[in-house]
Amino acid sequence: MTKIGIVGVGGRGFYGFAWPLSQKKEAKLVAVCDTNLERAKVVSRLIKEKTGISPAEYSDYREMLQEKIDLLVVTTPDFTHAEIAIEAMRAGQDVFVDKPLATKTTDCLKIYRTMKETGRRLYLGFNLRYDIVCRRIKEIIESGALGRIVNVVNADFYQGGKTYMARWNRFYEYSGGLFCHKGCHDLDIINWYFNLARPLRVVALAGVNVLHPGEIPFAPGKKRVGPYCRACEVRFHCPDAGRVESPLFSEEVAKVDSYYPDTCIYLSDKDTHDNGFLLVEYEGGKRAFHWECFFTPVSTRRFTIVGTRGHLDADLAKNEIVVYPRWSHDRITYSLVRGEGGHGGADANMLDTLLLAVKEPGAINFTSVREGIMSVVIAEAAELSRRQGRIVEISELIDWNDLAE
Ligand SMILES: NC(=O)c1ccc[n+]([C@@H]2O[C@H](COP(=O)([O-])OP(=O)(O)OC[C@H]3O[C@@H](n4cnc5c(N)ncnc54)[C@H](O)[C@@H]3O)[C@@H](O)[C@H]2O)c1
Fold first, then answer.
1. How many angstroms separate the alpha carbon of residue 40 from the centre of ligand 1?
2. Is there an atom of ligand 1 within 6 Å of 372 CB?
3. Is 98 a pocket residue for ligand 1 (Cβ < 6 Å)?
4. Per CATH, which fold does 2-126 belong to?
5. pLDDT tens digit string along 356-404?
6. Are 176 and 379 in contact, with CB atoms under 8 Å apart?
7. Which atom of ligand 1 is nearest to the CA of 14?
8. Domain map of the chain by residue range?
């Protein structure tokens, strides 16, 4: 049975890992850690109510590393991943880091070097790789039906993304910007579809054009707006009012760290974007375009992929892929059926694969650190590009020879 400790038991740590893992017979959730110890205690209590076993609670992950655990799951905010992963590996611990690997290329390289020096394993959490539509697209590409892939166009429409403006995610310092925090999923899939071709250069445009004070979607009159939805005098008029129902973020728990994930998404200060476009050129004449938007009322991902032998359109919300072979009037439609659970069943698929990979090290391919670095470097280049208004060469950020085996 794999003994697991989780550091960072907020939304993702609890709902994506602690809760499902505590109910798996192949795993034992030994300990949970959160800088807000009250949150760790709530998690421990909820798990005890369900399973009868309460994991130990810590507020400092270094102390938790004294526990005998097989895998440390890191689900803290993105900017903390590097420090925690490095410390843990140095302490002799294998780790799973949920996406993104880190927020900066330099931090990714430090993780990579530590992994090499310590010989520890690092599993990287890209759950989109376990999405049934994304996987089937990969199979279609590998079958050769599209020929050599030349163009990938992708859009991430995510209405839940507006809540980033209420939380730490809205600051570049903490998330690496949303091209890193959110876009890394899409960039990773694009890299995967291009068979890990090296990215060469990036150009991006992005901004905050809707989720700012000038776009509050009602007339507040004399009423006071914000600062948090639960305290806002006009929350009943606001179509974007957030309701925090999770016991992880109750008033009681928030007293410890003043973390209110219902900060007004219009009034909050922020330095990342609510919509953005990025273009990447890869070696071998491949090009990709990624669009992300967080005020859209739609939630889906779309891919258009064009190769030398065909064209593919896919929509993750419709669970549908259509392939148009070149030089033909045929069209082949794939209608897929999703499994249960978070992110359309992808979380459950990833968790099962992770447990197998930890049980039999080396037997199963899991997303590698090298692959994790690729999406971060593109995202970082995109942030530089949009802030400095120029095309950014990937060679400004990384020398691929540093990743030589
Ligand atoms: N793969 C996915 O689909 C997916 C979805 C959501 C979030 N995530 C990732 O999960 C991570 C957490 O995101 P979230 O939305 O759950 O954030 P969150 O704010 O809900 O939770 C983060 C938790 O980490 C705790 N924390 C912060 N620094 C810590 C430290 N040094 N040691 C211990 N605990 C610490 C916070 O107190 C908080 O409880 C991020 O890396 C995010 O990118 C992945």
1. 13
2. no
3. yes
4. Rossmann fold (3.40.50)
5. 999 988 888 888 999 999 999 999 999 999 999 999 999 999 999 988 7
6. yes
7. 16
8. 2-126, 128-211+271-403, 213-257
